[in-house]
Amino acid sequence: MYGCEIWSFTLKEKGRLTLFENRVLRRIFGPKRDEVTGEWRKLRNEELSDIYPYPNIVQMIKSRRMRWADNAESMLERKGVYRVLVEKLDGKRPLGRPRCRWKDNITEDFQEVGRRGIDWIDLAHDRDRWRALVNVVMNFRVP
Q1: For position 88, what pLDDT does the model report?
Q2: For residue range 36-78, what is the model confidence (pLDDT) as tens digits?
Q3: In terms of Cα–Cα distance, which of 142, 140, 133, 8 is closest to 67?
Q4: Alpha-carbon span 20 to 84, nearest angstrom
Q5: Which of 19, 41, 103, 124 is the right S-S partner for 73, CB 3.0 to 4.6 Å?
Q6: How far apart are the C-alpha atoms of 6 and 64, rounded to whole Å?
Q7: Which residues contact 43 (CB under 8 A, 6 or more apart)?
Q8: Backbone angles phi, psi at 85, to 5 degrees
Q9: Which of 108, 105, 98 minimizes the C-alpha distance to 7?
Q10: Residues in a beta bridge with 40
Q11: CB 37 within 8 A of CB 116
């Protein structure tokens, strides 16, 4: 998960990460014996989430991304990171659907938590509210 703060991933990539995490957890916890038939079977996703109550990998990436967004916002305008996040870059875009940007993922994270229409750059100035929001994202269960 090194450097996951700057990842900008799609729904397909989120599914792949969740699939990988569930596969590893099934390997760790092993099969379960069915009480009625006595046969061994794989653990279901719901059973895995009950056994392993910690946030899943997608939630961890979202919380780290939001924490890093606070740091990126607090950088001065002369830094390259801030310019990439806030300013519109020059140049011609390729044909087709625009690529998912990092800023779009932060906005999507806000919508999932129920904070639509909030400018995250203004919210990041208030450290206490921002930390509370990051904690909400950490405790938010993604289906």
Answers
A1: 63
A2: 888 999 999 989 989 988 888 888 888 888 778 777 766 656 6
A3: 133
A4: 31
A5: 124
A6: 9
A7: 25, 26, 29, 31, 32, 51
A8: -75, -40
A9: 105
A10: 33
A11: no
Highest mean pLDDT of the ranges 14-18, 32-36, 131-135, 136-140: 14-18
Task: With beta carbons less than 8 A apart as the criterion, state whether 62 and 137 touch.
Answer: yes
Percent of the chain predicted with pLDDT > 70 = 80
Quick one: pLDDT band at residue 87, thresholds 50, 70, 90? Answer: low
Q: Is 15 left (phi over 0), alpha (psi -120 to 50) or beta?
A: alpha
Answering whether pTM is above 0.90, one says no
Length of the chain in residues, anyone?
143
Please check whether residue 103 is in contact with residue 85, taking contact to mean a CB–CB distance below 8 angstroms: yes
Residue type, 91: G
H-assigned helices in the chain: 11-29, 45-51, 57-74, 80-86, 102-113, 120-123, 127-139
Residue the block writes with tokens 């599914």:
15
Q: Measuring CA to CA, which residue among 116, 115, 108, 107 is closest to residue 133?
A: 115
